[in-house]
């Protein structure tokens, strides 16, 4: 293989063969291909894209760059869910135990937050003692015992993606549909799952800002999953405002516990029930997505989903008693209310800006080695469409960083639009995607 020639051909928009992609990626994983040549390749793909066939081969090569877990000896249809990332997106914490309580095994390998988006692992690790660094053997055992497990990517799974993603993040090559698709699907298919539900975020807080780009990514992901023998469906969901009312790791655990105990947070629970209903349907426990949604609601209202979450936390080393007594958790040293300067209605959020602000308060990391403060974050008192009066609190910011708290409140206020009339509120679910294409989505009322 001549790596320079291969990079040149991709730069010129030519098609690369399976053998060429295998040799190029294998060389990078083994260290014989330097970062600068992989960077050149990634940039060529960023500008020239890949054909559907190249994208499928690229995904398969990354998938088989490491170990592929086999859960075939465990009973049931194993189903996972993946979100493309957003602000306040704590769906996995509610959904995984809820779906498992419906009898569908949920083996979930999750990621950390970076930049403006939060990460499931960071949220779970805000629970004292909770372990996400389990071995593959422990992963299999817990799925067999509880029907659910939530861990991080191990060293043996998809090493090509682990190296490549770190490089993409620092070379401005993240927002490429083939590269995103290959990264997501190689990791998900390595988990040992039988089926997958995708949550493709769209809006100003998502990586894909336009619905057109989100639909293109969703169609690519769904197509890849089905081509590779895993029943896959997807939903394009709204990220034009934070999901739910809390942003920050422990705050999002608290909101998840509230929802598992039956609290109604409309946008958060609509997304959770729809994704969960699809998982229950794919898992063979319901005749349709709508029936699966009803079973998920029953799991919440019966208390079975919450009990499953407590079992999961205990099994993975976390302090489940703290979840029963949320007020025992330490609070941030400083908090401040963001006050509305006028009467009106909340017309919109700069969700990306709010996500960045949350990281600066300590809730996330702007660099891979940044240390997270699990207490830090933002609690919204108002959402889009809500009436607000002059002097009323719109949100509360929490942090241990005394030097930024006042400036943070001013910056948050700049991330909110208040107008004199109530705006239209976008639906939580925009589209449904399956192997037959893109479809409108109408959910039944569950309340």
Please name the defining characteristics of this protein.
447 residues; alpha+beta; Transferase, Pyrimidine Nucleoside Phosphorylase, Chain A, domain 3; Pyrimidine Nucleoside Phosphorylase, Chain A, domain 2; Aldehyde Oxidoreductase, domain 3; 3 domains; five-stranded mixed beta sheet; 17 helices; 14 strands; 45% helix; 16% strand
Radius of gyration: 22 Å
- Number of domains as seen in the coordinates: 3
Strands across the major sheet, in which order?
A: 1-4-5-13-14
Specify the CATH class of the largest domain.
Answer: Alpha Beta
Helix content: 40-55%
Largest sheet: 5 strands, mixed
- Kindly state the number of beta strands: 14
What is the 3D form?
Answer: globular
Beta-strand proportion = 15-25%
Can you tell me the CATH superfamily of the largest domain?
Answer: Nucleoside phosphorylase/phosphoribosyltransferase catalytic domain
Low-confidence stretches: none
CATH topology of the largest domain: Pyrimidine Nucleoside Phosphorylase, Chain A, domain 2
- Secondary-structure-derived class: alpha+beta
Total count of helical runs of at least 4 residues: 17
Average pLDDT, all residues: 94
Describe the structure.
With 447 residues, the chain is an alpha+beta fold. It has three domains: 3-49, Up-down Bundle (Transferase, Pyrimidine Nucleoside Phosphorylase, Chain A, domain 3), CATH 1.20.970.10; 79-324 and 427-439, Pyrimidine Nucleoside Phosphorylase, Chain A, domain 2 (3-Layer(aba) Sandwich); 331-419, Pyrimidine nucleoside phosphorylase-like, C-terminal domain (Aldehyde Oxidoreductase, domain 3). The chain has helices spanning 3-11, 18-30, 35-48, 52-63, 91-101, 120-125, 136-146, 159-169, 177-189, 211-227, 249-260, 266-282, 289-301, 304-315, 320-324, 351-363, 405-414; strands spanning 79-83, 106-110, 148-152, 195-202, 231-238, 246-247, 334-339, 344-349, 377-380, 387-388, 393-399, 416-419, 429-434, 437-439. Strands 1-4-5-13-14 form a five-stranded mixed beta sheet, with helices on both faces. Strands 6-9-11-7 form a four-stranded antiparallel beta sheet, sandwiched between helices. Strand 13 and strand 14 form a beta hairpin. The longest helix has 17 residues, at 211-227. The model has no long low-confidence stretch (mean pLDDT 94).
């Amino acid at each position: 293989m001549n790596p320079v020639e291969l990079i040149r051909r991709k730069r010129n928009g030519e098609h690369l063969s399976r053998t060429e992609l295998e040799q190029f990626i294998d060389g990078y994983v083994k260290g014989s291909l330097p970062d600068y040549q992989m960077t050149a390749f990634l940039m060529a793909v960023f500008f020239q894209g890949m054909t559907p066939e190249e994208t499928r081969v690229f995904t398969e090569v990354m998938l088989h760059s490491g170990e592929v877990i086999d859960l075939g000896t465990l009973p049931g249809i194993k189903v996972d869910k993946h979100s493309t990332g957003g602000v306040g997106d704590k769906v996995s914490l509610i959904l995984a135990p809820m779906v498992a309580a419906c009898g569908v095994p949920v083996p979930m390998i999750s990621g950390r937050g970076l930049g403006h988006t939060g990460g499931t692992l960071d949220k779970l690790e805000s629970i004292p003692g909770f372990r996400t660094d389990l071995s593959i053997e422990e992963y299999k055992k817990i799925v067999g015992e509880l029907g659910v497990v939530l861990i991080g990517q191990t060293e043996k799974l998809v090493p090509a993606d682990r190296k490549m993603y770190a490089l993409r993040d620092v070379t401005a090559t993240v927002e490429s549909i083939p590269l995103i698709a290959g990264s997501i699907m190689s990791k998900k298919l390595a988990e040992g799952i039988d089926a997958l539900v995708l949550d493709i975020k769209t809006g100003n807080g998502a990586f894909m800002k336009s619905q057109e780009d989100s639909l293109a990514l969703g169609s690519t992901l769904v197509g890849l999953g089905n081509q590779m023998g895993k029943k896959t469906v997807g939903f394009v969901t709204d990220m034009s405002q934070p999901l739910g009312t809390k942003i920050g790791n422990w705050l999002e655990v608290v909101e998840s516990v509230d929802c598992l105990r039956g609290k109604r947070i409309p946008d958060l629970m609509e997304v959770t029930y729809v994704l969960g209903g699809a998982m229950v349907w794919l898992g063979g426990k319901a005749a349709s997505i709508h029936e699966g949604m009803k079973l998920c609601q029953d799991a919440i209202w019966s208390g079975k989903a919450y009990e499953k979450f407590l079992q999961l936390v205990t099994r993975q080393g976390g302090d489940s008693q703290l979840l029963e007594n949320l007020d025992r958790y330490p609070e941030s040293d400083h908090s401040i209310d963001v006050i509305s300067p006028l009467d009106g209605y909340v017309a919109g959020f700069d969700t990306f800006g709010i996500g960045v602000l949350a990281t600066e308060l300590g809730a996330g990391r702007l660099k891979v080695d940044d240390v997270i403060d699990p207490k830090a974050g933002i609690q919204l008192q108002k959402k889009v469409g809500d009436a607000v009066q002059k002097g009323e609190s719109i949100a509360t910011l929490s942090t241990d960083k005394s030097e930024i708290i006042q400036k943070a409140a001013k910056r948050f206020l700049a991330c909110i639009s208040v107008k004199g009339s109530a705006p239209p509120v976008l639906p939580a679910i925009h589209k449904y995607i399956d192997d037959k294409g893109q479809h409108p989505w109408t959910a039944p009322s569950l309340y």
